[in-house]
Amino acid sequence: MFEFSLRQVALRGQHPGEEPGELADPPADLTAVVGAVGDQFRDSFTRLCLYLARTHDEAPGQRTGDTVVIGTEYGNTAALAGLQRRADSDRMLSAKVFPNATSSSASAFVNIGIGATGRNLTLNAGLLTPVFAIWQALLALTGDRSATSKVLVGDVYSPEALLDAGREPHGLTCRSGLTHATFTTGREFRAEFDFAADRDEDAPLGARVGSARPTDRNGAFATAAFLRRLGELEEGEQAQLTCRGPNARRGALVVTRQENPMAHPGGHGA
After folding, report:
1. Nearest alpha carbon to residue 109 among 62, 161, 162, 52
2. Which residues are paired to 65 by β-bridges?
């Protein structure tokens, strides 16, 4: 069991029906916020992670002990594929390319970009990624490791990622998108996790909020819907996020509203 407060939730992604791939409508101020230095290494996923981390939360102006957790199935695949193509060419590669085009380089860019010096974690749990990412974020709040955990969940699908996703007949849409949320120490919510194997062989794969049927492979959309639902809960009410993957893999999160600051004088909402 974990206790926490939720400071903000933001989602940036494709709309239903859009062609899978890069965001057709990236933020107009993307370059102004994240700059262009290092773009030969940073792909769209990395830039969007940094953009959300810089624009959808408080800017401390100094180094903090914040934790950053990135939960993604494909992450910065485009940067990795670009590195591989360079390696297959006859051109020599500079050593400085490698730290900037690895499976965890997006989280490194975010940590450096916002001055976070706490835990830095990139995880891939396939279709169960949203529950695992939130679990790690809340785990970092225990034992005074960090007072704040920033979570980024989602994918921006590169051609290589779409090719891989197309091999699995899940019937889920590959919409690009990323959710950014900030968890802090507090007692507004209580979270309980369950990673027991799934006994329902007919349960649809993917992430769902409550009883809604999963539609997206990318967990960003279900994560945002779930976290925004928390802000609507009255004291004692619950919300559930369930993620199901192949081979009976399952992760479930039930969150209960313990305190509603809006119901008390001087309180602040999540």
Report:
1. 52
2. none
Angle value at C-alpha 109, between 56 and 49, nearest 5 degrees: 35
Per residue in 118-150, pLDDT tens? 888 999 999 999 999 999 999 999 877 799 999
| Cβ atoms 251, 125 nearer than 8 A | yes
Cα(98)–Cα(80) distance, rounded to whole angstroms?
Answer: 9
Confidence at residue 268, expressed as pLDDT on a 0 to 100 scale: 42
Long-range CB contacts (within 8 A, 24+) of 53-62: 53/110, 53/113, 53/114, 53/150, 53/152, 53/180, 54/113, 54/114, 55/27, 56/8, 56/10, 56/180, 57/7, 57/8, 57/150, 57/180, 57/182, 58/7, 59/114, 60/114, 60/115, 62/115
Q: Which residue has the tokens 């030969």?
A: 40
Residue range 22-45, pLDDT digits in tens: 888 888 999 899 887 767 677 889
> How far apart (Å, rounded) are the C-alpha atoms in residues 206 and 242?
8
% of the chain exceeding 90 in pLDDT: 52
3-state DSSP assignment of residue 87: helix
User: Residue 75 — φ and ψ, nearest 5°?
Assistant: 55, -135
- Per the model's pLDDT, the better-predicted residue between 101 and 270 turns out to be 101
Enumerate residues 6+ apart whose C-beta is below 8 A from 115: 60, 62, 63, 64
